[in-house]
# Entry
Amino acid sequence: MQNIDQILEKHIASGDLPCAVAGVAKADGTLYMGAAGLRSLDASDAMTTDTIFAIASMTKAITTVATLQLVEQGLIDLDTPITAYLPNLAHLKVLDGFDDDGEPMLSTPKSSPTTRQLLTHTSGYVYEIWNANALQCVASEQIDSLFVEGGNGMTAPLGFSPGERWEYGIGIDWAGVIVETLSGKDLDVYFQDHIFSPLSMHDSAYIVPEAKAARRAAVHARTEDGLTVIPHLGEPISGGGGLSSTIPDYLRFMRALLNQGTLDGTKILQPQTVDMMFENHIGDLDVTPGPTQMPAISNEFDMGFGQPAKWGLGFLLHEAQTASGRPKGSVSWAGLFNSYFWIDRENDLCAVIATQVLPFYDTHAVAMLKDFESAVYKNWKS
# Structure
């Protein structure tokens, strides 16, 4: 059996990464849990498996589950225009570019986005990190950055008409708004009541309480001088990001999906709904690499690792086996600070590995991910 502890220690000992926690599980229980490194390079606290991470866009899969719970209740139809739930979005515009004076050129979208399109990054909503027009909109102070708490970044125009292409964006943030609107609960309360408490995810929340703050890992930035501790980026309570969690907690969430929506006798989704999450929901469109516009925040990323990929509900759907072992039909995604997960129903496996480093898709973090993934399949492939 390949020693995963040694893999983590190797990548930390090189000085290329500050810390890592990894976990592997089957539907019926945990197979591996390990930690390496320091919670902060400015301190001496060793990483532990209950270290709390900012999981950023790993929040999106949780928001998707919350949305699908409301679908099961008949409150949401995935293919109804979102204006049925959020009438204030009835007059969306598409940002086509800028004229010679730097003024935005706007057009009317061919249709209103649907909730399915919000969940599959085909709604037209984009991120300034990976979209040049959106970044220019922020740079010219016509809209706030999404990283400005209390700003108006969510009200940015669409980057394209709904259904025209796949592009990673803030659609699932808007799905979170729909959950709040239809449930009558703030998103943090809804998650606690309907996902975290039922699954005994006791360390998952938007705001880390003071009593747990010592377990929180620091965020590090890769600079010309090496790794430097930086303040946590402000992230609002939103469907697209902002949660903090632990590797054991996130494994419980993934195990529930591996087990057709049920964990330890508690059901959060119907089996047929879980099956739907693992199906292609973007048709002939393809998931494409994200070309960075903000290299301090993200490198260019390719979460299909050079292989074709589609999008299910909540995560990327692999259309071919990766070089490191996860098979066609498995699903995956990641968080901005270089946390990565995948769920493989063929082999009854789920796995997650996290560090806290910017920029996203860091070369050293991805190398550790691939070594970890290879070891998982050498040890536990069915």
Remarks:
- The mean pLDDT is 95.
